[in-house]
């Protein structure tokens, strides 16, 4: 999956494809969040705090380490 670099304290890059959000953290860990719609992804990427937005997403979407 193609990811783009972001400006965040703990997130290095994010990508989205086929309702899956992929997040690479600055420590190198990569997680995929499943069932994330394109509109949810767009709201996430435009949020003022990616860390806070991700905390909301991980309460409603299943995720796993890649």
Spatial arrangement of strands, main beta sheet: 1-2-3-4-5
Tell the overall outline: globular
Number of strands: 5
Strand portion? 25-35%
Give the radius of gyration.
10 Å
Q: Average pLDDT value?
A: 97
User: What percent of the residues sit in helical stretches (DSSP H or I)?
Assistant: 25-40%
Order of helical and strand elements: EEEEHHE
Q: Distance N terminus to C terminus?
A: 12 Å
Main sheet summary: 5 strands, antiparallel
Total helical elements: 2
Tally of distinct domains: 1
Sheet/helix structural class = alpha+beta
Low-confidence stretches: none
Task: Describe the model.
With 66 residues, the protein is α+β, with helices and mostly antiparallel strands. The protein has one domain. 30% of the residues lie in helices and 35% in strands. It is built from two helices and five strands. It has a five-stranded antiparallel β-sheet with strand order 1-2-3-4-5, covered by helices on one side. It starts with a strand and ends with a strand. The model has no long low-confidence stretch (mean pLDDT 97).
Could you give a quick summary of the protein structure above?
The protein has 66 residues and is an alpha+beta fold. A five-stranded antiparallel β-sheet has the order 1-2-3-4-5, with helices on one face.
């Amino acid at each position: 999956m193609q990811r783009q670099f972001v400006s965040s304290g703990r997130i290095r890059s994010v990508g989205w494809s086929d309702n899956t959000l992929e997040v690479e953290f600055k420590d190198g860990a990569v997680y995929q969040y499943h069932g994330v719609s394109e509109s949810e992804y767009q709201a996430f990427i435009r949020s003022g705090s990616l860390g806070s937005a991700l905390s909301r997403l991980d309460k409603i979407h299943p995720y796993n380490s890649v």
